[in-house]
Write a structure and sequence with these properties.
about 230 residues; 6 helices; alpha/beta; single chain; globular; Rossmann fold
Length: about 230
């Protein structure tokens, strides 16, 4: 399975096979649901491959000004396998972009203040990892965005739709996995607008004090059903 619902089993025919296929060829994942921050962080860590036996190269993007939380999401990574990017629309005059000629990954976040620069920073980080590794293995690259909401508020649906499409495609080019958090209920109007861009939609909820999630592929054609998740 794609780093997510642990070892839980599903009775849905083809679900595990579809997840395995996506892991081999690359996957884009939309995470929805209004839940507590600790639930969201735990899901993010698992999607980033925390604790995996094989090495992961991670690109972490914060759009919420919580850059101090980025490194905690991949605290088993070192500076050579971790790239952090901070988007802040209100920091126009102080934004900086990492040089394309710099093949090293700094532990300090790259700061950007525009959507186009954010896309370039993500692409450069992927290029750098691909160059350093002399080619990436399937699912070796993990990209995570802590919230799509600030981008939607700043740029609107059409521009963000294009941004997500391009970022998903660049990640899939190297058979990587990218996930984005959209902290709204699955019934929110924006979800069906964006979900066609994604291979998987993961819905989070808290039920009777338990953290639960449901994985859906092809608009629910393949589904895990609700799974109780043990946090660490």
């Amino acid at each position: 399975m794609i780093a997510g619902p642990g070892r839980a089993k599903t009775s849905e025919d083809g679900f595990s096979n579809e997840l395995s296929r996506l892991k081999r060829h690359g996957a884009s994942i939309l995470v929805v649901g209004s839940v507590r921050p600790d639930h969201r962080r735990d899901t993010c860590r698992r999607l980033l491959g925390r604790g995996a036996e094989k090495a992961r190269r991670r690109v972490l993007i914060s759009t919420t000004s919580e850059t101090n939380q980025l490194a905690k999401l991949a605290d088993d990574a070192d500076s050579e396998t971790l790239s952090m990017i901070s988007y802040d629309a209100q920091a126009r005059t102080t934004a900086a972009s990492r040089s394309t000629s710099d093949s090293s990954i700094s532990s300090s976040p790259t700061e950007v203040d525009a959507l186009a620069d954010l896309g370039l920073a993500i692409s450069r980080a992927i290029d750098s990892f691909e160059h350093d590794a002399d080619g990436l293995e399937p699912a070796e690259l993990r990209v995570g965005v802590d919230s799509v909401l600030p981008l939607l508020e700043e740029y609107g649906r059409k521009r963000i739709f294009k941004f997500l499409h391009l970022t998903n495609g660049r990640t899939r080019d190297v058979s990587g996995m990218v996930h984005y958090h959209l902290p709204v209920e699955r019934t929110a109007k924006i979800v069906p607008v964006l979900s066609p861009l994604f291979d998987v939609v993961v819905e989070l909820r808290e039920q009777h004090g338990e953290h639960q999630e449901r994985w859906m592929i092809d608009d629910g054609t393949h589904s895990s059903g609700w799974l109780s998740i043990t946090t660490k």
